């Protein structure tokens, strides 16, 4: 568990990247493809674009970016762990460049930043790496096959309607022996807020509706990445806990992050009495001794490689020359020898 406190408040080389128009996305600043509500399309992508654009236009957009910058730094650390230079990289759902600001041009020589919100790209943090900014949807990447040496993504893919398709798109644009490194919110994210709102609605209104979007389970990630064609997979989880003055500050910062709920089945309005009750329940059930309240963000980190014949391969089944039973006997002999 990691802890954070709420803070006080060149394009010449990109022409060869584009794919033929096999994708559904237009080339001009687009809206995400229209979707209808339902189990296969839980999110209103047009609303999510509006939310992210609104957040990027605030007077101090960096005020609420502390979580994104923290996770972006951890993604960059995983990039640095791979001892190679990546000539061309792609940041899917880049926002204002939360990963790029932690990278160096010695590690990534050129970078393409993709986001559905054009205002986030316009207000991106400057970096020493030459970059190109592209407005596009994560589910419809408009690039040629085998283009990028590295693809990264931080806290964006939890809003896509078709996560398996998004993983396949990423795999498609990676070169053989290219690597995908990503992070997304996990199922226990904001459980304190979720429980407080549900209990308050049950008490005041006799029922409840979802106010926190659904998240992917960690057990599904490895399967989805494998189905998309990735191998040598690594999936791990972490939790970041941020302390806030109260429930209203939690929701204010979520809005400032562009993380307001955009589920089709969301409730459009919360009554004042319900909100006050939820704030009291939040403080009573989860409050810290100093009067603040915690908000937990569960993060899934994933690494997957695109197959290349030079990669190490697992040994054939049945080729082992030593059994686990023999290993146990060796440990016993070593223990007796020490005595």
TrEMBL record:
Any Gene Ontology CC annotation: mitochondrion
This protein's record includes keyword rRNA processing: no
Main location: mitochondrion
Residues covered by the Methyltransferase type domain: 90-181
UniProt record, GO biological process: methylation; mitochondrial respiratory chain complex I assembly
Keywords: Methyltransferase, Mitochondrion, Oxidoreductase, Transferase, Transit peptide
Molecular-function GO terms, alphabetical: oxidoreductase activity; S-adenosylmethionine-dependent methyltransferase activity
Protein name: Arginine-hydroxylase NDUFAF5, mitochondrial
Originating species: Lepidothrix coronata (blue-crowned manakin)
Gene from which the chain derives: NDUFAF5
């Amino acid at each position: 568990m990691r802890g954070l406190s709420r803070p006080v408040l060149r394009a010449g080389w990109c022409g060869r990247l584009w794919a033929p128009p096999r994708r559904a996305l237009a080339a001009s600043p687009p809206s995400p493809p229209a979707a209808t509500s339902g189990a296969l399309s839980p999110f209103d992508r047009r609303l999510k674009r509006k939310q992210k654009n609104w957040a990027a236009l605030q007077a101090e957009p960096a005020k609420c970016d502390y979580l994104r910058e923290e996770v972006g730094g951890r993604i960059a650390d995983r990039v640095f762990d791979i001892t190679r230079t990546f000539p061309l990289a792609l940041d899917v759902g880049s926002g204002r460049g939360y990963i790029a600001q932690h990278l160096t041009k010695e590690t990534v020589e050129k970078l393409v930043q993709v986001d559905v919100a054009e205002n986030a790209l316009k207000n991106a943090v400057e970096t020493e790496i030459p970059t190109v900014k592209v407005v596009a949807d994560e589910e419809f990447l408009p690039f040629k096959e085998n283009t990028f040496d590295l693809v990264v993504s931080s806290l964006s893919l939890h809003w896509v309607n078709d996560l398996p398709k998004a993983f396949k798109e990423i795999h498609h644009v990676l070169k053989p022996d290219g690597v995908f490194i990503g992070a997304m919110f996990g199922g226990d994210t904001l459980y304190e807020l979720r429980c407080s709102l549900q209990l308050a609605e049950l008490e005041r209104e006799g029922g409840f509706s979802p106010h926190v979007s659904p998240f992917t389970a960690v057990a599904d990630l490895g399967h989805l990445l494998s189905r998309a064609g990735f191998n040598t997979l690594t999936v791990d989880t972490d939790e970041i806990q941020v302390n806030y003055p109260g429930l209203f500050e939690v929701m204010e910062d979520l809005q400032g992050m562009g993380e307001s709920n955009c589920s089709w089945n969301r409730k459009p309005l919360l009554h004042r009495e319900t909100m006050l009750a939820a704030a009291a329940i939040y403080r009573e059930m989860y409050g810290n001794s100093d009067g603040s309240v915690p908000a937990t963000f569960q993060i899934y980190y994933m690494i997957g490689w695109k197959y290349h014949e030079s990669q190490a391969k697992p040994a054939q089944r049945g080729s082992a020359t030593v059994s686990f039973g023999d290993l146990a006997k060796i440990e016993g002999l070593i223990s007796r020898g020490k005595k």
